[in-house]
């Protein structure tokens, strides 16, 4: 049992790249590596003690998958990345319990999404469901602070936690186990 009295689980977030999704429907399209990986994962993994561990998998399509305008703005400007960060972060906030492990995988702008969320969690923690009401302000401050510090990557954690109003999962900042990303493309 985990600290919260629940069975610890793995929350696995898989973020696809620009113009990529698992069901494009195009005649000669093939599943991306992120899609293949998400489909290959089982509902249960095995921990170091050979015990079954439930795995909850969250697959997120890339930016630029909805129509011609979205393809252009998502591809050129990364439009939609903030919404993807919020959605995947929200998945974690709603499903996390103390003792859970968090895994991230991503490609291209999906790699950026995974890294952004992992950075936010390891810096200040993970908002609770109720805390998601403050996500917009927390996210904005996190990136404003990084820009204002001339390349220094350390955010003002005290300020972020104050903005979060204390609505954070206890010790979640230590739950990120894996960040598996390749060919990261950002937009900030």
TrEMBL record:
Q: Where is the T6SS Phospholipase effector Tle1-like catalytic domain?
A: 9-186
Q: SUPFAM superfamilies given for it?
A: alpha/beta-Hydrolases
| Origin: domain of life | Eukaryota
Q: Which InterPro entries match?
A: AB_hydrolase_fold, Tle1-like_cat
Give the matching Pfam families: T6SS_Tle1-like_cat
Can you name this protein? T6SS Phospholipase effector Tle1-like catalytic domain-containing protein
Instruction: List the source organism.
Output: Knufia fluminis
């Amino acid at each position: 049992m985990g600290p919260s009295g629940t069975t610890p689980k793995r929350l696995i977030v898989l973020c696809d790249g620009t113009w990529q999704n698992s069901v494009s429907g195009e005649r000669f399209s093939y599943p991306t590596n992120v899609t293949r990986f998400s489909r290959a994962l089982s509902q249960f993994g095995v921990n170091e003690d050979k015990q079954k561990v439930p795995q909850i998998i969250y697959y997120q399509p890339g930016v630029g998958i909805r129509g011609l305008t979205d393809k252009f703005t998502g591809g050129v400007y990364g439009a939609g990345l903030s919404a993807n960060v919020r959605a995947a972060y929200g998945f974690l906030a709603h499903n996390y319990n103390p003792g859970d492990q968090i895994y991230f995988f991503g490609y291209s702008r999906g790699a950026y999404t995974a890294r952004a969320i992992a950075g936010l969690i390891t810096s200040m923690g993970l908002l609770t469901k109720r805390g998601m009401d403050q996500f917009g302000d927390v996210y904005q401050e996190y990136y404003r602070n990084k820009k204002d510090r001339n390349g220094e990557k350390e955010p003002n954690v005290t300020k972020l936690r104050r903005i979060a109003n204390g609505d954070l999962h206890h010790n979640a900042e230590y739950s990120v186990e894996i960040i598996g990303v390749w060919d990261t493309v950002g937009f900030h």
